[in-house]
Amino acid sequence: MAAPSLLPPSFSAGIFDFDGTLAETWHLWRRVDEIFFATRGLPFDEDASATLATLGFAAGARWCVERYRLRDEVSDIVDEWNRLGAALYEEEVRLRPGAEAYLRALREAGVPLALATTNDPHVLGAMRHVDVYGLFDEVVCGREVARGKDHPDIYLEASRRLGAAPGACCVFEDILPGTLSAARAGMTTVAVRCEDPRQPARELRRAADLWIDGWEGLAD
C-alpha cells in the first residue's frame, strides 16, 4: 500500500491510539505496574508490562490472575488500575507537541476521528489537560470490545461508529500488535515513534505504511 498523505489527508476517517501515540504515558503505566506487582510481593515483570499495554484492563486483569495465580477478583484489579491511573493522569498527562493541531486540522478538512484505546473511560475522564471527548467524534475503549489490540476488534468498532469502511480508515499506533491487526483489517497504518524504550521501531517501520517521529509540523 502506498504511504498515505497526512495533510491534505488521503484517507476518509482517522483512528488514533492514545497512550504513546498522542501522549507520552508509558512511564505512568510503568509506575502503576510497579505498584501492582510490589503490593503482591512479586518482582516487576517487564514482559508482562508490555503485554498488559496490548490487552487492556479486563483482559489484562484476567491474564494476571491466571499467570500469577492471584486470589484477586478481576473486577478488583480493574478498579485498582483505574484508581492508580486516574490519580496519575489527572494532572500529569498532556498531548504531545503538535498532536492537537493535527487533530483539529483533520476535522477542519472534514475527516471524522475516533480514539481507539485500551484505556478506561474513568481514566480518560480524569484528565484535566486533555479533553478527548471534545477532540474526537467517537471514543472506543478496550472494555467495549471482545479482544485486545492483537486483534482488529477495536479498530473495526471505531470504523463502524464513524460510518467508514475499513479500507477508508487510517490508524495511528505506537505498538506493533495494533499496527499489524489494523493492517490485517485492510486499514492504512501510520506508526508513531514514542519514548517507550520497549518500542520495536525497526519492526514497526516495516509493518506500517508510514512512520512518523512525532506530530510537530504536520498541520502546517
In short:
This protein is 45% helix and 12% strand.
Question: What does this protein structure show overall?
Answer:
The chain has a six-stranded parallel beta sheet with strand order 3-2-1-4-5-6, with helices on both faces. The model has no long low-confidence stretch (mean pLDDT about 95). The protein has two domains: about 15-25 and about 95-210, 3-Layer(aba) Sandwich (Rossmann fold), CATH 3.40.50; about 25-90. It is α/β, with parallel strands linked by helices and about 220 residues long. It has helices at about 25-40, 45-55, 55-70, 75-90, 100-110, 120-125, 130-135, 155-160, 175-185, 200-205; strands at about 15, 115, 140, 170-175, 190, 210. Strand 5 (about 190), helix 10 and strand 6 form a beta-alpha-beta unit. It has ten helices and six strands; from the N terminus they run E-H-H-H-H-H-E-H-H-E-H-E-H-E-H-E. The chain is globular, with a radius of gyration of 17 Å. This is HAD family phosphatase. GO terms for molecular function: phosphatase activity. InterPro entries: HAD-like_sf, HAD-SF_hydro_IA, HAD_sf, PGP-like_dom2.
